[in-house]
Amino acid sequence: MKKLLIKNIKGLVQVGENIPKVIKGLEMRNVPILENAFLALEDGEVVAYGLMEDWEGIDDWRDLEIIDASGKYVLPAFCDSHTHVVFAKSREEEFVDRINGLSYEEIALKGGGILNSARRLNEMSETELFEQAKVRIEKMKSYGTGAIEIKSGYGLSVEGELKMLRVIQRLKEECDITIKATFLGAHAFPKEFKENHRGYIGLIINEMLPQIAAEKLADYIDVFCERNYFSVEEMEEILLAGAKYGLIPKVHVNQFSILGGVKKAIELGALSVDHLEEIDEQDIAALKNSECMPTILPSCSHFISIPFGNARLMMENGLPVALASDFNPGTTPTGNLGVVWSLACAKMKMTPEEALNALTVNAAYSMGLSETHGKIALGRKSPILITKEIPSLAYIPYAFGDQHIEQIIV
After folding, report:
1. 348 to each of 229, 321, 341, 342, 355, how far by Cα in Å?
2. Could you report the per-residue pLDDT of 8-25, keeping only the tens digit for each?
3. Does domain 78-365 have CATH number 3.20.20.140?
4. 31: Cβ contacts below 8 Å, ≥ 6 apart
5. Residues with Cβ < 8 Å from 70, sequence gap 6 or more?
6. Residue 21 and residue 361 in contact, taking contact as beta carbons nearer than 8 Å
7. What confidence tens digit (pLDDT) does each residue in 76-126 have?
8. Do 392 and 75 touch, CB atoms closer than 8 A?
9. What is the CATH number of domain 3-77+374-409?
10. Which pTM does this prediction carry?
């Protein structure tokens, strides 16, 4: 049995036996912290924690590793509940296009964006995609991420979508952190179906979904519900088809416009609604009466210069908020949740504590991982991270250009 003692912890964060599955509204300002603490693990499971002054020593010193965390914080690893980590190539040429004045939608209409990634992905082998994604995941781990949701959606064909999901399945098997797979065949309409939406939706429902279900390749289903992409009615049809195979919705809504997608996604049992750069009173009311997690992606807003989600309005209305990276080659080419934490504070006026709750407890909920991730408690095997020596927890989002994570234990 492998034993680990972390002692002299400056702050043991998000620790306790009564932390709820979801933290809402004003409660998001509160994060439990034990100062000058210890944490004991056996085979990754939390067996004891408390103040150093209450530590009574170790009876059995065999096979015991001791980490002195003087000046350092220990907290549950971040959960990244919205990513597109499996992709073929970067899209820095579109970054330059935006600098030169083109909008996201203008780039997409000229063949860039999602269709650009789909073309490149379909030219690459499963092995190449796997190796590249694995490198990205290792980098995300170094930033403190202990669970990742990965979407398909750059295949946009039966073969391409299955290829992506098989890569994600292999990542699940070979990476040492938890990975959830989301089928996002409804990410955009392929060029050949631009004027034939029915044809592509039929392909998703009649060919992609049965094969995905047969191979058990997805946990969730997603649709990009947005103008110039999929309508609310099209989203409903696809999500209902996915429900027949047990796929729970986690959907893109309200990135550029409000179409009524939030309310409909909630009616269809969505675990989370993601983006929400735009939101109105009807959306707030629908979310209040639901178990759906509003998830905001501030690094996307930053990178493509669109509005930031109104986290303050959501929390003032008693809602929970989760944060995620949206790591993808076009609109958010980073999986660094420390940067997301900082942007949430600087641009969305979330306190460091609110943003941390959004990256841990609430993000774990939006991945269906409340029982295993997001907090530190007896009997749990949540991945944890140890910071470098820092003056305070708020220093992490404050000094956003630095690497503050020293070690992740999974």
Report:
1. 27, 12, 10, 9, 10
2. 999 999 999 999 999 999
3. yes
4. 13, 14, 353, 356, 357, 393
5. 8, 10, 389
6. yes
7. 999 999 999 999 988 898 899 889 998 888 888 777 778 888 888 888 899
8. no
9. 2.30.40.10
10. 0.95
